[in-house]
Design brief:
Elements: H1 12-52, H2 59-67
Helix pairs in contact: 1-2
Length: 73
């Protein structure tokens, strides 16, 4: 009785699926991170923008004028 010898070369389809799974997992991590830290990142961005503004406006006033964020309805 002979035992079949397995090829040591990886299969191209299998490698493609592995890369696709890794990319999907990375994308999920990025989406979750942005969802959790999104408001913090946005607030830090507008605080940075406000630090360069010499008119004395608040970050909320600047963001409302520039990008229509945090505007009262």
């Amino acid at each position: 009785m002979r035992i079949p010898i397995r090829s040591t070369q990886p299969r191209a389809g299998q490698a493609f699926i592995e890369y696709a799974v890794i990319l999907v997992l990375i994308a999920c991590v990025v989406v979750v991170t942005l969802f959790v830290l999104g408001n913090t990142i946005q607030n830090n961005y507008w605080n940075l923008v406000a630090s360069f503004d010499a008119s004395g406006r608040t970050p909320q006033q600047i963001s409302c004028q520039q990008g229509n964020y945090n505007c009262p309805h």
